[in-house]
Amino acid sequence: MSAREILVAGGGIGGLAAALALARKGRRVRVLEKAPEFGEIGYGIQMGPNVARMLERLGVLKALEPASVFPEALIFADALTDEELTRISLGKAFLARYGYRYFVIHRRDLHGGLLEACRQRPEIALSPSHGLQSFREEKGAVLVTCENGAEVEGEALVGAEGLRSPTRQAIVGDGAPRMAGHYVYRGVVPDEEIAERSRAHTMTIWGGPDLHLVQYRLRGGTVMNNVATIASRRFRSGAPEAGAPDELEEIFAQTHPRVRGSLRYVSRERNWVLHDRDPVTNWTAGRVTLLGDAAHPTLQYLAQGAQMAIEDAVVLAEKVAAAGGDYPCAFLAYQRERMNRTARVVLSSRFFGEWFHVDGGARELRNELARGRDADNPWEADWLYRGIQPDGRL
Ligand SMILES: Cc1cc2nc3c(=O)[nH]c(=O)nc-3n(C[C@H](O)[C@H](O)[C@H](O)COP(=O)(O)OP(=O)(O)OC[C@H]3O[C@@H](n4cnc5c(N)ncnc54)[C@H](O)[C@@H]3O)c2cc1C
Questions:
Q1: How far is the CA of 305 from the centre of ligand 1 (A)?
Q2: Is the pLDDT of residue 377 over 80?
Q3: Would you say the CB of residue 132 lies under 6 angstroms from ligand 1?
């Protein structure tokens, strides 16, 4: 075991996965988290077979199973008509193809599972209320100055502070993330409050002009996760109140009654403004690198942001183990392996965001192509769900 610690800034899903992966390779790790407590927001998250494989390698997949729901299919439907256009069956053929099941889970259960696994490892120290403010590299060490005034020394630093990572600003310096003009409203409601029972055991997405809706059950089917997104017309025209609750109602007004009726399941108290960044090639500098949303924030349309962060964690630890104490070399190898796969997720997510939200002739084309798909042959998803290839190829 190395004597000094690797510092991980940010104790979200990515940071904790990184701590766990590095600890499992015998490294000592300290997680510096800005918030006074380690935690996650109370909504659902989707996990494909690519990440299930990674979670197994981190030794947490089994422990997450009781809290997971395994949908029967991923369905795409037209939001104006409620017509089911296509489905990816998640049964035997899917399992045989990818080796792992697709599951959905409450974020707190996923984050909590990773946190528990971290707590059980003597190599990992967790430091809440230690937001990274700045860092400098000095004589084979990285010195982090925290917002609370503490100075922490490590042999390397992994910036996993999410979308507005200060470590990214120091390394990449690309300023504010790109606003997509998309706004998300969410809600988790008890299953008995859900009027419509069909497709109860699926993850269904309805796509419509400038909108989409996602629904799936969580926690043994006892609650349903609802995500309603709009591509704000006000944002595009520069009008005020972009993405406000009345615009949500306005854009959903033309949808099928089932779809617009589902707006009663999302809270108006808060919305999420979606951002991403253009892929970059320089997220590593010496003994410092980035991971997860800090490195390659993506829109939600492939449901892969957290999954990429977990894949990052596993690859990072592999490269650190392979390079011994040579962090600059390990981090460059890690970045090289992750760069194109994560860039593909970022750019494909933008494409799917457009594709879900089209109208007119584009909607006709989308629907016809979707209807023609084979349910047991996941559409364009092989590169994603097969996961990391042993040689890092896409
Ligand atoms: C609507 C929506 C739906 C989504 N659905 C999915 C999905 O189904 N599947 C999926 O895989 N992904 C999904 N994502 C993406 C996913 O939520 C993110 O990609 C993921 O949470 C990124 O994890 P992270 O650990 O990199 O960053 P974060 O989750 O942002 O965690 C960063 C952590 O760093 C801390 N922090 C911040 N600043 C500092 C600092 N200065 N010093 C120290 N700590 C700091 C924060 O408090 C936080 O704990 C979705 C995103 C959205 C918006």
A1: 8
A2: no
A3: yes
Ligand 1 close to Cβ of residue 162 (< 6 A)? yes
Q: What is the pLDDT of residues 79-117, one digit of tens each?
A: 999 999 999 999 999 999 999 999 999 999 999 999 999
Predicted local distance difference test score (pLDDT) of residue 388 = 83
Which residue numbers are catalytic?
A: 216
Percentage helix, strand, coil for the chain under 3-state DSSP, each rounded to 5: 40, 25, 35
Whether 7 shows a pLDDT value over 90: the answer reads yes
Asked if residues 279 and 342 have their Cβ atoms less than 8 Å apart, the reply is yes
Determine the average pLDDT of the residues in 174-199.
Answer: 94
- Cα 363 to ligand 1 centre (Å): 31
Indicate the pTM of the whole model: 0.97
Closest CA to 108 of 62, 45, 54: 45
Question: Closest residue (by CA) to atom 6 of ligand 1?
Answer: 303
